[in-house]
Design brief:
Number of domains: 1
Protein name: Lipoprotein
Oligomer: single chain
Strand content: under 5%
Radius of gyration: 18 Å
Keywords: Signal
Number of strands: 0
Number of helices: 7
Organism: Arthrobacter cavernae
Shape: elongated
Order of helices and strands: HHHHHHH
Structural class: mainly alpha
C-alpha cells in the first residue's frame, strides 16, 4: 500500500509539473502577438483578404484568426501528445491516445501549409503506435514532434 501511495504522489507531482509547464508555454506564446494583433485589427479591411491567403501558404496562422491563436492551439495539441509517455507510466488508457489523435486531426486541418506534413507524420506515428505507450518514449516519437516544436520556437516567442 505504501508503494502505491508513494508512486501516486510522485505521479501526481509529475503531472502537476507538466500541466504548469504547459500552461506557461501556452501563455508565453500569446503575449508577444497580442499587441501586434490589435494593430492588425485596426488596419483597413481592404488589406485583410490578401493576408490570409499568404498566411495559409506559408508559416502564418493558417485558418486560425491570428498567430497567437495558432500558437495556443498548436501548443495545446502538442501538450496532449507530449503527455502520452506520462500517461503510459500512470497506466495509460486507449482514451488518452484517442484524444491526442483527435486533437492532431482537428488542428492539422487548420494549421499553415508548412505545418500540415509535420502533423500528418505525428498523427501517423500515433496511429501506428496505438496504445503501445512504450513507443511514445522512443526516438522516433521525438523526431516526429521535433519540427512542430521548432515551429513553435520560431513563431511563438
Amino acid at each position: 500500500m505504501t508503494l502505491i501511495t508513494r508512486h501516486g504522489r510522485v505521479g501526481g507531482r509529475l503531472l502537476l509539473a507538466v500541466v504548469l509547464a504547459a500552461g506557461l508555454a501556452v501563455s508565453a506564446c500569446s503575449f508577444p502577438s497580442s499587441a501586434a494583433q490589435s494593430t492588425q485589427t485596426a488596419a483597413p479591411s481592404s488589406l485583410a483578404p490578401s493576408s490570409p491567403a499568404t498566411d495559409q501558404a506559408g508559416s502564418g496562422p493558417g485558418a486560425f484568426g491570428s498567430m497567437s491563436e495558432a500558437c495556443i492551439a498548436v501548443s495545446a495539441t502538442m501538450f496532449s501528445v507530449t503527455i502520452l509517455p506520462l500517461a503510459g507510466l500512470m497506466g495509460g488508457k486507449s482514451e488518452d491516445v484517442e484524444k491526442a489523435q483527435a486533437e492532431l486531426a482537428k488542428v492539422q486541418g487548420q494549421v499553415s501549409d508548412e505545418l500540415r506534413p509535420q502533423f500528418e507524420k505525428l498523427k501517423a506515428f500515433t496511429e501506428s503506435a496505438g496504445t503501445d505507450f512504450s513507443k511514445y518514449g522512443s526516438g522516433e516519437f521525438e523526431e516526429a514532434m521535433k519540427p512542430i516544436e521548432e515551429w513553435l520556437d520560431k513563431n511563438c516567442k
